[in-house]
Design brief:
9 helices, seven-stranded parallel beta sheet, alpha/beta, Rossmann fold, 299 residues, binds NADP nicotinamide-adenine-dinucleotide phosphate, 17% strand
């Protein structure tokens, strides 16, 4: 019998590369969508292509196999780019997968997709729209929503460190909303399980072992950097997000961050169910101290 084929998008990214590493240890045939040049260490057959132009590489989608869709625009980008890549291209990929006879489609969403207020957050809007497309597809699907993913190469960890670890720590909002960060290797293991063993038709939040407030998370970053527990500069979120939102249409490239990127300080960033859910989902193995310490030397 031929080995199952898993096709990964976003395999060159922070989470996708950990997913490929984890999948490479399994008895599966691996393909990865790569839009630049594939590094020599890519543990998969590279499929050259861009998510926004599927026709040239559609034939590489595995009939009867699995697509693990990690690719997305994640950082500071115009709303139209978030919608084109995260929403429209995901819908087009679902159609292509249905034509190709793909068995399972695992969509890597975000807990931000279910933030009640997504008005100033095009990323969250695009993820929510993509989730709706996944739910209405004819494929066997799974939706996974990581919380904030930390570990070596985490852009979020770098951002939180910058806020917390200056001479005066910066804290947006009350600092009382819940956070539940997860280590990248734990998120990757859970995604691989969902792609290869878990039940279909489920939506699952992927959070880490500890729920703590945003203020405490920043404080732990600060202590981890060898600083004292304070002082803190509290910054009111409402006015800052309003100003950022007003400037973004014409000044996005020069803004340090966006209104959307601050949404987690309003809504929190925790999963609704503590792992392990569903039964069998690998529980996180890395505690918060490990996540805080685990970074690139230059990160
Ligand atoms: N990091 C987190 O804390 C976090 C939390 C919740 C959910 N997520 C979700 O997890 C997934 C992975 O996030 P990440 O942090 O690993 O992001 P990342 O490091 O920014 O990686 C994004 C990946 O998507 C690829 N990509 C972007 N646009 C593409 C396009 N038009 N065509 C083909 N590939 C494209 C990138 O390719 P290139 O290498 O060519 O740029 C890269 O491989 C995303 O869906 C994200 O929304 C992340």
């Amino acid at each position: 019998m031929s080995r199952e084929t898993v096709f990964v998008t976003g395999g060159t990214g922070f989470i996708g590369s950990a997913v490929l590493e984890s999948l490479a240890a399994r008895d599966v045939s691996l393909r990865a969508l790569v839009r630049g040049s594939a590094g020599p260490d890519l543990p998969a057959d590279a499929v050259q292509g861009d998510l926004t132009d599927i026709a040239p590489w559609e034939r590489a989608l595995p009939a009867g196999g699995t697509v693990l869709h990690c690719a997305a625009v994640t950082g500071k980008a115009p709303a139209r780019v978030h919608h084109a890549v995260n929403d429209a291209a995901t819908a087009a990929l679902l159609d292509a997968c249905a034509r190709a006879g793909v068995g399972r489609f695992v969509f890597v969403s975000s807990v931000a997709a279910r933030f009640p207020d997504r008005r100033r957050y095009p990323y969250a809007q695009s993820k929510a729209a993509a989730e709706a497309a996944v739910r209405s597809s004819s494929l066997e699907w799974v939706i996974a929503r990581p919380t904030q993913v930390l570990g070596p190469g985490s852009a979020i960890a770098d951002g939180l460190r910058r806020l917390a670890c200056g001479p005066i720590g910066v804290r947006f909002g009350t600092g009382r909303v819940p956070m539940q960060p997860i280590h990248v290797r734990d998120a990757a293991r859970a995604l691989v399980w969902l792609a290869t063993e878990g039940p279909p038709g489920i939506e699952v939040d992927l959070g880490g072992p500890e729920v703590l407030t945003a203020g405490e998370l920043l404080r732990r970053f600060r202590l981890g950097a060898g600083r004292s527990g304070g002082p803190w500069l509290p910054v009111p979120l409402g006015p800052v997000r309003a100003v950022l939102g007003a400037l973004e249409p014409f000044a996005l490239p020069i803004l340090p961050l966006t209104a959307g990127q601050l949404a987690s300080f309003v809504e929190g960033n925790a999963g609704v169910a503590r792992p392990p859910f569903p039964p069998g989902l690998p529980a996180p193995e890395h505690d918060l101290e490990t996540m805080l310490a685990d970074r690139n030397d230059d990160g």
